[in-house]
Amino acid sequence: MKLNLIYKNYFKALGLFSLLLVATLFLNCEDFIDVDLPDSELTGQTVFHDLATAEAAVTEIYSKLVNNTLVCGTSSGLSILLGNYADEIQPYNTGLQEYDFFQNSLISSHPQVSTLWNGSYNLIYAANSVIEGLENSTGIPDPDKERLMGEALFVRAFVHFYLVQIFDEIPYVTTTDYLANSTVSRMPLADVYAAIITDLESATISLENTGLTPFRLRPSKAAVNTLLARVHLYTSNWEGAEMVASAVIAGANLTWVPTLENVFLKTSSGTIWQLMRNQEGLPTHEAEHFIFTSSPPPNRALSSYLVDAFEAGDLRKSLWTGHVDNGLEVWYYPNKYKQFEPEAESLEYSIIFRLEELYLIRAEARAHLGDMEGAQGDLNKIRNRAGLGNTTASTEPALLDAILQERRIEFFSELGHRFFDLKRTGYLDATLNPIKPGWNSTERLWPIPESELLLNPNLLPQNPGY
């Protein structure tokens, strides 16, 4: 059976994976197109017979992340979708699918929800293919095999982490066996998080001796531990969050960026992991989709709720936002990434993890642990760089509110931080009810795509409200 036919059968059986994406994940390698193999050999030695083939497979995963789904800076990514869904972005083009997210009017057959689900599980399938291929390969040197294995395990955990924030209980898929995957079921949250942590801890071991790559374009041990610290925070493991965040902050080759103007440059010393588009010189997708030069905004702008949330004197408003003024009204847009047109060399890449998050993770964990002075110190690190004075918050509740506000301003328009923070801290309904007509508490989750439920009833029940 031809391999592309095998993938088609896999897709029909499960519905999680797009045939076209899987077919391209390995750069149209002739081994995948022309060689007849039984199912058991899909990811064996024939696939990863040398380092170049394995590298190409892993690199293509990053290409899909930055260009197509989940954390991409386009209107298919979470920065825009969840920015609309929460209180960060105001859309101006009602013909865009993101307008449904702004109105919180999602249904289980919404094409963008299905696209994100399928695209994400495609990435997971690709990561599993790499893991299985590396396990069976004898032609790749052990240090390279360990490095690539660590990256694939990290990607698998990374994508599942975002899926569990959006859909709640999900399948944690760890194989390319389509027969097994065709009957997967949703797992309890505790089991999903346990699987994420297991993959991250294994990835940490695999990447133990791997340093930061030039421009931090590949996940490192620091990237793995950044996600691990976030997982501990989201699961209320304050000791784990504080310990892992401290380890990343103290790690080699990461240094605090003292000026706001340099935080989002591709050479920033505080960047932990970033993604580059497939051609040098291009601007980030974030710049292309956020920056506008005419009024009214053609597609989207920052909401007044976000703009009004900046404290007086906060340099992030003047340096990280831009605006268009028609003499009567002012519209603001995210201007963290400033290169808007192609140039000879890209000035910026799309940042996924940066050092500032670790300080705010540690501040929140320390506040929960009763270390108010430590929490204040980490919070002030962020505030002082933005031109603001030290926090006046000194009690645990006051500090936690101050940290939540600081995260709102520091990470606006970045990968759904705001929505996830409101949800995990219990402020989602209180924040969105007054400003989102028709907001329902069940909208804290997105619907499982209807097409997936029809193909695999084990994914039932549907999330409440859909």
Q: Care to give the gist of this entry?
A:
By secondary structure, the chain is mainly alpha-helical.
Our estimate of the beta-strand percent is 5-15%
**Strand ordering within the main sheet:** 1-3
**What is the CATH topology classification name of the largest domain?**
Serine Threonine Protein Phosphatase 5, Tetratricopeptide repeat
Helix and strand element order:
HHHHHEHHHHHHHEHEHHEEEHHHHHH
Large-scale geometry: globular
Give the termini distance in whole angstroms: 40 Å
Mean pLDDT: 90
Radius of gyration: 22 Å
Write the CATH architecture name of the largest domain.
Alpha Horseshoe
Residue windows where pLDDT falls under 50 for at least 5 positions: 1-46
Q: Summarize the main sheet.
A: 2 strands, antiparallel
- The helix tally amounts to 21
What is the top-level CATH class of the largest domain? Mainly Alpha
Helix content: 40-55%
Q: Number of DSSP strands? A: 6
**SS-based structural class?**
mainly alpha
Quickly count the domains: 2
